[in-house]
Amino acid sequence: MSIKNNKLLIVEDDPGLQSQIRWCFEDYDVLLAEDRESALEQVRQHKPAVVTLDLGLPPETDNTSEGMATLKGILEIEPNTKVIVVTGQDEKENAVKAVGLGAYDFYSKPFQPEIMSLIVGRAFRLLELEHENKRLHNSSSHEHFNGVIACSSQMQSVCKAVEKVAPSDATVLLLGESGTGKEICARGLHVKGRNNKGNFVAINCAAIPDNLLESELFGYEKGAFTGAVKQTKGKIEHADGGTLFLDEMGDLPIALQAKLLRFLQERVIERIGSHTPIPVNVRIVCATHQNLREKIEKGEFREDLFYRISEIPIEIPPLRDREGDVVLLAKYFFNEFNEHHGGKLKGFSKDALSSMESYAWPGNVRELQNRIKRAVIMSDEKYITAADLELDTAPAERMNYNLKDIREKVERQAIIRAISHVNGKIAPAAELLGVSRPTLYDLINKLNIKY
Ligand SMILES: Nc1ncnc2c1ncn2[C@@H]1O[C@H](COP(=O)(O)OP(=O)(O)OP(=O)(O)O)[C@@H](O)[C@H]1O
Ligand SMILES: [Mg+2]
């Protein structure tokens, strides 16, 4: 998430100097304030990237107490703001004090446009570099197509499968619990596919009433039914040259299943109220969280349609079965939301990390994303705690009594967690685990851990 912030706030009580400074920064979005209150209000509302702050602010223009208080206030609201304090001549001491309080730089009057714009320009550049650095740091080797984040071997193979089938025209069926990332993978198939210049059109079969679904999918001619006031294209036509994503396919009414099957076989549609066949070239991706085989047995889903749509089925595992992904995704979402909220938090407390690891995540990645978003907004401390996440951790695993299995499972989990905690570096992971590096390498080989 890169935000280009071009806002410069000038805090200066002398109107003459204010307009002089403003004049020399025409390239920026300049905001103005003349005292502490208006400066803090501007920071709250507009989050300027850089602030020039006159230390001698009213009501006490002969000393710097009001200026220093404003500096503190700004950094409390937006700690990453680059504040350049402007002092009178021979006020080095105050300048140093301000830098000690977190100011980025200082500038001594009299005002010289060239020098001031140099300092301001450098502050903006530094902020840009900081953002870029953060972005590079966050987009680790664990970022796959389309922003899919994963380090677990389970998800690595899903990502590999998506990349492999994307360029083909095979119909893909994405299976997985709610919130596992079916739609993000469907978009990945589109972006990496041959039809990526066309539209990605998604339709949720469960969200549209049965009687409207047909016209949504196939479109209709004017006068085809009451209310059909003008000719309207359906979603399939809109996706021509692109990808059609049929979400919650298990909820497609049986009558429409026959119609869709016909389209999949012949690749032509007829709008409701017309017999003119319209050829459509579209990549089909389907998804469902339901067990289609069970539905077939109950007579609720056509077997022939099932074989058509599942040329290549891809099963997306639930989050609780992905080794190491919870912490990785948690850190990723944390960085994203924290940056958006002014970067005030530092990370997770230890108890927060372990509560996330032992939670079963019934709502999968979407639930994790929502809980972290809420915790970032609500947290009052520097670190997000287990309480902020409000997880009800009661791991309900069925017990396996085989000691060797248990030992291996625990070792495996501990190693994967340690490696993902230290971003894939072996030496610090070995230190965390209390073993030597060669021992850790042996275990990684023995347990066939991919990292
Ligand atoms: N591996 C991942 N990396 C980053 N973000 C992810 C990942 N998986 C899912 N997400 C995000 O989690 C949210 C849920 O994903 P998505 O909508 O793809 O799930 P879904 O399986 O379609 O869910 P549902 O069945 O509820 O429709 C989205 O905001 C998505 O961007
Ligand atoms: Mg979905």
Short recap of the structure:
With 451 residues, this protein is α/β, with parallel strands linked by helices. The chain contains 19 helices and 16 strands.
Name given to the CATH architecture of the largest domain: 3-Layer(aba) Sandwich
Major sheet attributes: 5 strands, parallel
Number of helices: 19
Distance between the termini: 26 Å
Task: Estimate percent helicity.
Answer: 40-55%
Low-confidence segments: 395-399
Class inferred from helices and paired strands: alpha/beta
Order the strands across the largest sheet as they lie in space.
2-1-3-4-5
Q: Provide the residue-averaged pLDDT.
A: 89
Shape label: globular
Bound molecules: adenosine-5'-triphosphate, magnesium ion
Task: Quote the beta fraction.
Answer: 5-15%
**CATH class membership of the largest domain:** Alpha Beta
Tally the beta strands: 16
The radius of gyration is 29 Å
What name is given to the CATH topology of the largest domain? Rossmann fold
CATH superfamily of the largest domain: P-loop containing nucleotide triphosphate hydrolases
Tell me the domain tally: 4
